[in-house]
Design goal:
The chain is mainly beta. It has one domain: membrane protein fhac: a member of the omp85/tpsb transporter family (Porin), CATH 2.40.160. 9% of the residues lie in helices and 56% in strands. It has a 16-stranded antiparallel β-sheet with strand order 1-2-3-4-5-6-7-8-9-10-11-14-15-16-17-18. Strand 9 and strand 10 form a beta hairpin.
Length: 379
């Protein structure tokens, strides 16, 4: 009997090993791709970039395009902005787990600074050739981040993120609001951890047509004298007809303690960071860095219609959108429609194959016309 049991166990083990080998052999091999591209900078001109990607394609029916990928990118703009970044992501390598880690350095030569709070003003008449950088500051960041996500049940998951960051703000030639508030230079270091619950029913992740992505979490950082942040971001997608999607997002964040200036400009969303408030990731009618506060509240509504669909080869998509938001500095965060900065507009998106998307946004709002270029959908 013992011999029979041992034989059965050996057969079962051999069958499992054979199944694993067969599954591994059926997967697509790793691929290497590299290409240059042009994107928009933060309040800056075009950025000439290059990217190298070493990746293993996922199955066609999967929600993501790659089981795992290593991306290396670098870029530079005529105004002096530049970046270099390395990111590894593994959404499908281990069942029930997702991993992401990255590091990089970035210098934004025309980052916006208009003061703190929701009532800051922008007067273009004060900006001329002799005083071009009144509302600008140079921001340099060095960053390393790692995130692990564990599926709890079905679409519900828990995610932990660890983040190490060093940020330095320096003034540009001439008078500026930043110099008035902080002097010529401000350097801040921050080590932070974030825990979030995530509920994700999206049909696909790279070009979502249907479903919701809901997340809420808490972050604690060491920057300043220490701070704690509570945040939530809720996104929904509805396909109303073939090639037409309505997408909506509402997000908010509030911090207690003594947060850094740089923490006021970011929101640590799941597997992503949102730059707040202003720019192509949060409010397209405002400059990047236009509003900053200890808390933020914003919403976005957009319609995406494929004007020229080419199936898996890509599409030319028309956009129509409305963005609204505000920040809180001296007052406590609250859910309100008071004093929202509202803007809207339209744009064109170019989707190339099943992964690369560029958006060109034309918006009007409380500060007048604003143009921005995004890499990927806004949300």
């Amino acid at each position: 009997m013992r011999a029979i049991r041992l034989l059965v166990l050996l057969l079962l083990g051999a069958s499992a090993l054979a199944a694993q080998e067969s599954d591994a052999q059926s997967r697509s091999p790793w691929r290497l791709s590299y290409f240059p591209f042009i994107s928009g900078g933060a309040n800056d001109g075009p950025i000439l970039s290059a990217r190298l990607r070493y990746w293993q394609p996922a199955e066609y029916e999967d929600r993501v395009t790659a089981r795992a990928a290593l991306d290396v990118g670098a870029g530079i703009s005529p105004q002096g902005s530049r970046y270099v970044a390395v990111k590894f992501s593994a959404p499908l390598v281990w069942e029930g787990w997702r991993f992401q880690a990255g590091t990089g350095a970035e210098r934004l030569a025309r980052f916006g600074y208009f003061g703190l709070g929701n009532d800051t003003q922008k007067n273009d008449d004060l900006v001329d050739e002799s005083n071009p950088f009144l509302y600008r500051v140079r921001r340099t960041r060095y960053k390393a981040v790692a995130e692990v996500t564990r599926q709890i049940k079905g679409p519900l998951a828990v995610a932990f993120q660890a983040d190490l960051e060093s940020a330095k703000f320096t003034t540009l030639p001439g008078p500026s609001l930043f110099d008035d508030d902080f002097g010529e230079e401000l350097k801040q270091d921050d080590v932070a951890g974030r825990l979030a619950l995530v509920y994700d029913t999206r049909d696909i992740e790279y070009n979502t047509h249907q479903g919701v992505l809901l997340e809420a979490g808490v972050q604690h950082g060491s920057g300043g004298d220490g701070y704690t942040r509570l945040y939530g971001a809720f996104r929904g997608y509805l396909s109303v007809r073939e090639g037409t999607v309505i997408a909506a997002r509402v997000a908010g964040s509030g911090m207690g303690g003594s947060p850094t200036l740089n923490a006021r400009f970011t929101l640590p969303a799941w597997e992503d960071w949102i730059s707040v408030l202003g720019g192509e990731t949060s409010h397209r009618s405002l400059d990047t860095g236009r509003l900053a506060g200890r808390g933020t509240l914003f919403g976005n509504l957009e319609v995406r219609h494929d004007l020229l669909p080419f199936g898996d080869l890509g599409a030319v998509t028309l956009l129509a959108f409305v963005d609204a938001g505000r920040v809180f500095e001296e007052e406590s965060w609250r859910l309100t429609t008071d004093d929202l900065k509202v803007g809207g507009g339209g744009g064109v998106a170019l989707r190339i194959l099943r992964s690369t998307i560029f958006t060109f946004n034309f918006a009007g709002g409380p500060d007048g016309f604003n143009y921005s270029v995004g890499s990927g959908w806004m949300f």
